Amino acid sequence: MQAITFQARGEYKYQTDYPLPEPEKNEVVIKVNQCGLCGTDAHIYNGEFEANFPVVIGHEFSGTVDSTGSKVKNFTSGDRVTLNPNTICNKCEFCRNGKENLCVTLPGLGVNSDGGFAEYAAVPERCVYHIPDRLSFAGAAFTEPLSCALHGIDLAKINPGDVVVVLGSGPTGLLLAQLAKLSGASIVITTAKRKKRLEVAKELGATEAIDVSKVDLLQELDSALDGKGVDVVLEAVGSEETMKQSLQIPKAGGRIVWFGVASPDLEVPVKPFEVYRKELTIRGSFVNPYTTQRAIDLLAENKIRTDKLITHYFSLDKFDEAIDTYENDDSRIKIMMKP
Ligand SMILES: [Zn+2]
Ligand SMILES: [Zn+2]
Q: CB–CB of 308/170 below 8 Å?
């Protein structure tokens, strides 16, 4: 079958002779309909995120069940499905304490074992979820990113009426901004440097989308909010600039959620006195504990819009173009790979 395999840092291969997966007894083989290209994939490609090479990457996919192992009970061929790609060990102290997103074996499919940039993928049954007919395969491919964004939103503890700032308007920032609105935020301000993303943020309901390539963010926030403080900052870029900004924005009692994937070596200065005096909360948010079904429900009920996020489709043999578009095309938001 066709597959994109990562061989080492910066090295990938488009293969047409990759072996078809056979289901183990607890596995479901999914015929992949489409699979999102994620920032994590780019981080793996650039050597900033560890992976178990060689591996078929891609962890944001949807499709139909092709075949099932002998012990699989809840799925049969033809079922429309998506997945939570994170396979856990069920043995470590985190798994045993209700913190499966911190499992020592994470992450799973598409990073440490074969994922969805292929025609077929074998997935443990416990990771597979049915999707309703009214949810498109394209929408369902957002299940994993949305489930991660949901965890970040859960940690942010947004109250109705809160003022929320989302730093960054990539696919994740745009999901977070929509979730913040759904959570009852009265004002959601987003930031971006690219025209397309500023437009889409507004279309998806941002109160204001600030072009940080042109204006000073703190000054602009001041005038946009007319002296009102910011309750929650959701950082969804991972850059030094945005990490620093996230610390400067919230009012006393504010919450900061670091969602963006920063380089492992990045350090940013924190003023402990300010954190103390303002009782700031700084939280990291990692993957998607117990949020997969909620993500599917939100997508199925059209509470979260994904149609405006998909800007490009590529077939697997065009992975070169997909990577080039990911890195260089200003109009790019979400790229889908379609076998
Ligand atoms: Zn992802
Ligand atoms: Zn574990």
A: no
The Cα–Cα gap between 205 and 265 comes to 35
Distance 138 CA to ligand 1 centre (A): 14
Cα(269) to centroid(ligand 1), Å: 28
Rounded to the nearest angstrom, the distance between the alpha carbon of 130 and the centre of ligand 1 is 19
Cα 272 to ligand 1 centroid, rounded to whole Å: 32
pLDDT at 214: 96
Model pLDDT for residues 107-144, shown as the tens digit of each residue? 789 998 999 999 999 999 999 999 999 999 999 999 99
Query: What's the confidence (pLDDT) of residue 176?
Result: 98
How far, in Å, is the centroid of ligand 1 from the Cα of 148? Answer: 8
3 state SS of 163: strand
Domain range summary for the chain, segments of one domain joined by +: 3-142+309-337, 149-284
| Model pLDDT, residue 227 | 86
Rg (CA), the chain: 20
| Architecture of the domain defined by 149-284 | 3-Layer(aba) Sandwich (3.40)
Phi and psi (nearest 5°) for 323?
A: -65, -40
CB neighbours of residue 186 within 10 Å: 14
pLDDT (0 to 100) of residue 11: 86
Task: State pTM to two decimals.
Answer: 0.96
Which residues, chain by chain, have CB under 5 Å from ion ligand 2? 88-89, 92, 95, 103
The ligand placed nearest to the CA atom of residue 41 is: 1
CATH class held by domain 3-142+309-337 = alpha beta
170, amino acid identity? G
- Give 338 Cα–ligand 2 centroid separation in angstroms: 32
- Residue 334: Cβ within 10 Å count: 25
| Distance in Å, CA 325 to ligand 2 centroid | 36
Question: Do strands 250-258 and 281-284 pair parallel, antiparallel, or not at all (unpaired)?
Answer: parallel
- Element of type H or E holding 161: none
- Report, as ranges of residue numbers, the positions in the chain whose pLDDT lies below 70: none
